[in-house]
Amino acid sequence: MEPENKPLLSHHHRIKRSIIPPKLRAVWRKDYFPCLPARYVLAIMSCLGFVIVYALRVNLSVAIVEMDNSTATVHHSARVFDWSSSQTGWILSSFFYGYIFTQIPGGWLATRFGGKWVFGIGVVMTSVFTLLTPLAANHSVWLLVAVRVLEGFFEGVTFPAMHAIWGRWAPSPERSRLSTITYSGPYLGNIISFPLSAVLCQYGFDGGWPSVFYIFGALGIIWFILWIFTSSDSPSTHPRISLKEREYIESHLPPPQQKLDTPWRAIFTSPAVWAIIIAHTCQNWGFYTLLTCMPTYFQQALNLTLGGSRSIVMNGVFSAIPYTLFAIVAVLSGQTADFLRAKQLSTTIVRKGFTIAGFLCAATFLLLCGYFGTNTATAVTFITLAVGLNALVMAGFNINHLDIAPRYAGILMGITNMAATVPGIAGPQIAKLIAVTPHDPKGSVEYYHKFRDEWREVFFISAEIYLFGAIIYLILGSGNKQPWADGYANSKSPPSIQ
Questions:
Q1: What is the reported pTM?
Q2: Which of 33, 182, 334, 382 shows its CA 20 to 30 Å from the CA of 327?
């Protein structure tokens, strides 16, 4: 019988052994997931973390329908508010004003001190402020805006922190599949949050819409407790990892180095970095436009009205369908990308191929939706294909940070995600400016026809931006590790511009 590999304990864990009771220590040392390697437990837990993260982000998009007196369709005991269109816009966009400021600091903190606590605290604090949302809304609209800004502030560290964690955990042969498991979480969060939020608005406790925030906030706190006991910053500090797995991971990662200066100049003058920045920004323009405006498009252009309890639930279901396909394609694309790289296809070709394919598919089906999506069936089909096949980029630029500089992947994600947050503010606002309410009577054929024409312009702009991102990434993108990727300590002179 093969001897069991004994877990390795860091010096930090050995010091703490004396203060942990023997019985509790035996439970702690036990492998709760004997069939799964530690890196895949990490992938699953981080995926669940991002499910929570995106559920906390988008639940307001559904709940606000029932919070605003002008759009509320379900009459429960919960208070509704007489908000102006401007105030509603501030409420929906305020999240991104906090989110944009913690991208680079989150990456730097996770790179410097480890991502476990940065990621975990980001999720749990967002959950706490979500629990406070009903209280803030009942106090004043501007306190609600402030709470949403704080939610964005803490959630902003999550993506950079997770990239920093994978920079220490993901062996190069499995980089694509591990990352795509993790980053399918946001889209699973959309799948769950849209319909569940709609159901809670109709049937939930405490008057309906407040239960949306209580349920998702509580789930975030429960996840945080599990995260503490199942994750670590690196394989060397994991209390239950086997010796074999630890050696396998560390053999495919650069050797650890301490107190390296971040090569900021080299980062900001690297074409490979700018390729990711531009691709990420173009991706998020279309993504955020659809994420925030899809229910409105179904209502305005297709007459999928939000009136009535059944309609709000159906709207949530229709809005979740595209992200179901996205999650499936994201995981499959990660598996396929690693398979192609194992077959000696270069990382550069793989990353460019998946990125360009994802952008072209999204652009094509958005244009088809704009011109031929004249009823609910065709529109949902085209949007589902546009969003779902766009998931190919998850095995492209989205994990390219780990290829070009695994040591600084968290910082790079912070930089690119900060730039890519701007479309989250601008894209939906421009969509609202284009798709204005026609003067024709609501319900007339002319009313919905004019809305379809205006939404065609919204889709056309997104398609153009997708194509621009594909061209730039084709020219500048790279899958090769950059000369500055190991910091200044390994160079006799400052890194050259690549």
A1: 0.75
A2: 33
